[in-house]
Fold:
Amino acid sequence: MPDTEPDLATFPPAPADGEVRSLDALIIGAGFAGLYAIHLLRDRQGLDVVALEAASGVGGTWYWNRYPGARCDSESWSYCFQFDDDLVRAWQWSERYPRQPEILRYLNHVADRFDLRRSIRLDTRVTAARFDEAASRWLVTTEAGERYAARFLITAVGCLSAANIPDIPGLEHFGGTWVHTGNWPEAGVDFTGKRVGLIGTGSTGIQAAPVIAAEAAHLTVFQRTPNYSVPAQNHPLDETFRNRIKEAWPSLKARMRSNTNGHPYVPADRGTFEVSDEQRRAIYEQAWNAGGLSFRASFRDMMVDRAANDEASAFIREKIRGIVKDPATAAALTAFDHPFATKRPPIDTEYFETFNRDNVRLVDIRATPITRIVAEGVETRAGVVPLDIIVFATGFDAMTGPLLRIDIAGRGGTRLKDAWAEGPRTHLGLGVPGFPNLFTITGPGSPSVLTNMPVAIEQHVDWIAGCIAWLRAEGLARIEATPDAADTWGAHVAEVANATLYPTAASSWYLGANVPGKPRVFMPYLGGLGRYRAVCDTVAAEGYRGFTVAP
Ligand code: N01
Structure:
């Protein structure tokens, strides 16, 4: 069977009309997190498990984000499951940074290899979940009205899956086509001969712009916040390299698991001002030429010392000015308002070079704000930009959005959206006070988006599976994070963040600042994945300290 075509006959059946299907665990989502959770809970513990997935295929973020240029910013061979050495040996990555179709093929391969599809219901969006206190179980309903009851509810909904479509007046009057990169149509979008407007210059917009520009008649990039980017320096991987990785796999794997960020590179242990100006420049040059996310790890103080960060920032500004030929465009692209990497830094393939093309124009919407969308295109204070297609690369209601778009009610009927009205409150990003037996994979308060995600996901799923196994062995039916533990953890997450430059980026989605009205809380945990793993292991070893349990 080709690995993209599921065998429909093996799908778990929908509950019959009016029936409530009883399960040990219900998983929401079938991306990296959901797939691994099925494998651990079903195949290693023998639980009755179903994963409900809104999409028509597995893959999570890699199912939806099919926009042109979509590829991973982690090295391919590190951005994968690590729990099974045979899987690692079997899969051949073709490029340093895999394109979206390759990652989606990989996740389909995993689904087939571990026979996961028979536990996944596709095209099934979970709309609500309510904790039934008397029976200590979650009652879950879907958009189509299917009903499930499960002892454990595991959200594998991703951190960046709730699309943020800005509320720009007049969108409904637009005469052309508009799309959001995070909900890209499966059939693709044909840009040939079209005038395209791209709104947003985050990682997504920066990946998409060069590819759209090469296909479209004209591309207008609407930039609100100038963004740093370092070249990806992507290239095909050859057999020799792949073999070297496989030979070194045990040590690489150990490093990724204990590293601060789950990546295979080792952050440098030198201060920016401990080297001469010439040495510093040579180090930046080397990092620029090596490419990728590791640029920010070239000095240990880049993210904690403003003067150190300013040095890196000045280097990047100079590089961009050296690439972009039009001085006014170069100035607009480099008018940075935040320290480097305090917003997730993109990596690119010829993003800045794209502005040297005749068919590309940058519109600085800080200088000439968008006023509305009209039938012909986007209107700014400087006039109407005529467009056939608008691409929103405007990001996501990150981390909390995917959870809060489900109507989740815990003990006493308390709604998660009310419990989190002032910002997310979790113990370790794994458990929420008032919401027993709910496990949030890579939830707010965990390292998640600051790491190489599959490594963080595996750590969470391992911990959750270990916790469920322990509860069952102890004859316990319930576990719940205590308010004290969540408050202590939340204070620690904030304290660690405040010791860095990260919270100074005013428009960062790490802070929820990209979504109007969202509470400003620095959501991911910056203490490092290795340290976080140790904390989680200690909590488990001490009988799940910070959680209450009940028979
Ligand atoms: O979203 P973003 P993204 N009017 O929020 C602008 C991951 N990712 O989809 O900065 C005009 O970063 C907004 O402007 P501003 C990665 O973690 C991973 O690009 O708010 N503009 C910004 O320029 C990444 O960080 C990979 O002023 C508006 C842009 O839209 C995360 O996904 C690949 C606007 C949004 O940038 C999100 O990236 C790609 C408005 N009303 C992405 N609203 C991998 O490698 C927003 N913007 C795995």
Notes: The mean pLDDT is 96.
